[in-house]
Design brief:
By secondary structure, the protein is α/β, with parallel strands linked by helices. The chain folds into four domains: 74 residues; 111 residues, no CATH class; 205 residues, 3-Layer(aba) Sandwich (Rossmann fold); 25 residues, no CATH class. The protein is built from 18 helices and six strands. The radius of gyration is 31 Å and the shape is elongated.
């Protein structure tokens, strides 16, 4: 084997190992990647130009991702495993010049960082405005790399050099360039109309691209200091189906809504199937007797009249107290989705009192509006506004005694924290006894049940208590129901 062949084989092996590490990181981020997809990713390396970074990014995404919601996490990992490297100049000087050189003045004509800091920021701000007007994505990413090196560096610490994106943004203040950029994009076209709307959208997209490039460069430098795996654990946001309901933010709710809708449909199907399998129609005496003639009058096989299967009925009890604000938004979202698949869905919200909130969930109603109306109009607070499961259950049983019956599925959603008040176990046990099925979805980890003022462990003795902290666990609950 020649030296060139040996070197090529080593490079190929190194690239394969690097791709394997990247695929593992994608899988650890919660994106399912099978063996066949990993093989396809290896094939991508043979058909794309590896020097064209964006081509590689999109090629690997095409074979590794299944949903658009997975793309943000993927992009962060791609930037960590396949960082941007400066290409050498046309006539690189002898010595250290070459791909990956971190010299901040190697690609753009910028100050070397030894002059006045204010003058440096001013000149870089002018360069940024020019690049944003040109719209050259590659040049903008390289400028972001230089800006981090020149402006994002914090005072050295014993643990090493640190860089921060907010220092770059504070020095350059790109948001204050909007008026200048609009004037440059519109030129003599004038303000107003479709042209200005398009220009404003273009400015927003280019500013967002610059921020993303700065963040990616900061992560790259942090990864070089502390390791890619460690940075990935803190930089990659959980996927929507892995976000804890108690910590869900507004940006997660839209994706959660898309996740919850099919789960609600599957839940309705599961409950309907259990009802069909659990009960049969009334005995058809005439058909049974006729069939017994073939066995000497012995009714070996019995026949039953077909029973008309209705959509299951559902009663949902939702804790909407402040301690589970994020979870209550999800539970009301689930309630809205379930209304499409159950013949009779009745929703009840409670804090230390209970009120029926079904009226807020008409078809097409926005969940955020429903949550706001519940806070304003629903009678869910009787005393101090702190959770009181015992009183809430008693109010529900007294005011709506016929809400739960033999055809009803009962679904309770809450953390079971009673503020050291009576938990109302006898009332809950009676409701469970009267219902056809009953389940409690708890957003807290199982290890916390029974700690402090939590009565979840005692509630679990009378009702099926299920840990449900995210959409993945909700899917598991529906699957195993």
């Amino acid at each position: 084997m020649t030296a060139a062949t040996s070197s090529g084989a080593a490079a190929t092996g190194g690239l394969a190992g690097h791709l394997d590490g990247f695929v593992r990181a994608v899988r650890e981020a919660g994106i399912p990647v099978g063996i066949s997809q990993a093989v396809d990713a290896a094939e991508i390396l043979t058909v794309v130009d590896l020097l064209e970074r964006e081509q590689l990014r999109h090629g690997l995404a095409a074979v590794l991702l299944q949903r658009a919601a997975q793309r943000p996490a993927y992009d962060v990992l791609f930037d960590l495993w396949w960082p941007l490297a400066d290409r050498p100049a046309v006539d690189p000087p002898d010595g250290d010049g070459g791909p990956g050189d971190d010299d901040p003045a190697s690609t753009l004509d910028l100050p070397d960082g030894h002059g006045d800091e204010g003058d440096l920021a001013r000149r870089m701000r002018e360069e940024l405005a020019r690049l944003l007007l040109d719209g050259d994505d590659e040049a903008l990413r390289r400028f972001a790399r230089q800006a981090v090196d020149l402006l994002g560096r914090a005072p050295a610490s014993p643990s090493g050099q640190s860089y921060f994106g907010y220092r770059v943004m504070r020095a350059l203040s790109p948001d204050t360039l909007v008026a200048q950029l609009l004037a440059g994009l519109l030129a003599d076209g004038g303000r107003g109309g479709l042209a200005e709307q398009v220009a404003r959208q273009t400015v927003r997209e280019r500013l967002a691209a610059f921020r993303a490039a700065v963040d990616a460069e900061v992560r790259r430098r942090a990864a070089a200091e502390r390791g890619r795996e460690r940075v990935a654990r803190s930089a990659v946001r959980p996927l929507a189906d892995q976000v804890d309901f108690l910590r869900a933010q507004q940006a997660d709710l839209a994706e959660l809504r898309r996740t919850v809708a099919p789960l609600a449909r599957r839940l309705a199907v599961r409950l309907s199937a259990r009802r069909r399998m659990g009960r049969v129609g009334r005995l058809d005496f005439r058909r049974t007797v006729r069939a017994s003639l073939g066995t000497g009058g012995v009714p070996v096989v019995t026949h039953h009249r077909p029973r008309k299967v209705h959509k299951p009925e559902l009663v949902v009890l939702c804790d909407v107290s402040g301690s589970v604000a994020g979870f209550s938004h999800f539970t009301l979202m689930l309630t809205q989705a379930l209304r499409e698949h159950f013949s009779g869905v009745r929703a009840f919200a409670f804090v230390d009192a209970t009120d029926e909130v079904t009226r807020f969930f008409r078809p097409g109603a926005d969940v955020s509006d429903a949550v706001a109306r519940i806070g304003r109009e629903a009678d869910v607070v009787a005393f101090d506004g702190h959770s009181d499961y015992g009183n809430a259950l008693e109010v529900f049983a007294d005011r709506w005694p016929s809400a739960v019956g033999p055809k009803t599925s009962l679904l309770v959603l809450g953390d079971g924290r009673t503020n050291y008040r009576q938990p109302g176990l006898p009332v809950l046990a009676d409701l469970v006894k009267r219902a056809r099925s009953a389940h409690w979805l708890n957003p807290e980890p199982r290890r916390l049940w029974g700690s402090g003022d939590s009565a979840a462990d005692r509630y679990g003795d009378v009702i099926d208590m299920v840990e449900c902290r995210n959409a993945t666990q909700l899917a598991d609950f529906v699957t195993t129901l």
